[in-house]
Amino acid sequence: MNYDKTKYKVWTWKNPMMLHWIINPGLAFNELALGQRVPKVFLTDRDKTKTMAERSFIPCPHCGTIHSGLKWTPQNKTAFKNWFGLYCDNCGKIIPCLRNLTSCLILGLTFPVWFWFKDKRKAKWIEKQHVKFSKPLNLTYSEPKKQWLRAGLLFGLFMFIIMEILYPLIQGENLTKKGLLTGIITWTLAGFLFAFMTKIINIKKKNN
After folding, report:
1. pLDDT for 12
2. Shortest CA distance to 152 belongs to which of 39, 34, 72, 22?
């Protein structure tokens, strides 16, 4: 697609913020557990009098519609559960998204498990997206309330289960109270750090 570059900045995987999504291992949690996705092509309005959220646009390569990025926000309950991509409510197709490298590795290793259910789950997901996007959406910007903190704590919980419970069991190691307590403290702090870094990144995006 051709875009009006006098009006928009075009972000692809080469943009530092987009590249960060691809290479940061921690963001595999956002992708696989939360279903938070980033489109392969992202447009930002050059009008810097608006907030970053208001300047964000996502084009659909199938029908050419340029969607407001506010369609996929917590206020519309559409920011998460986008495991198969971003749903275009104009043509009903899926807007392609970037894939985190760690997510690719996890999906590759677990391929024999989820492959058999993929098509059925995707069909049900598309039906739910159609219902969700057929309702009126709020396309006015409102500051999210500590979403970053919740995401960080969920990340810490996810990593605690994987690293302190599942991984030792796979390795044949015994679980100890001391080890679990240390893990709880470590991954809670890691969750807060992850949440803080997410907030800083969002502030930088807002000021770009």
Report:
1. 93
2. 34
CB 97 within 8 A of CB 85: yes
- pLDDT of 24 > 90? The answer is no
DSSP, collapsed to helix, strand or coil, labels residue 97 as: strand
Which among 47, 45, 91 is positioned nearest to 70, based on CA atoms? 45
pLDDT at site 145: 54
Q: What is the dihedral of CA 197, 202, 207, 208, to 10 degrees?
A: 100
C-alpha distances (whole Å) from 108 to each of 50, 81, 113, 114, 206 are 41, 20, 10, 10, 34
Residue 40 has pLDDT above 60, yes or no: yes
Higher local confidence (pLDDT), 15 or 144: 15
Identify the CA nearest to 81 among candidates 120, 35, 42, 43. Answer: 35
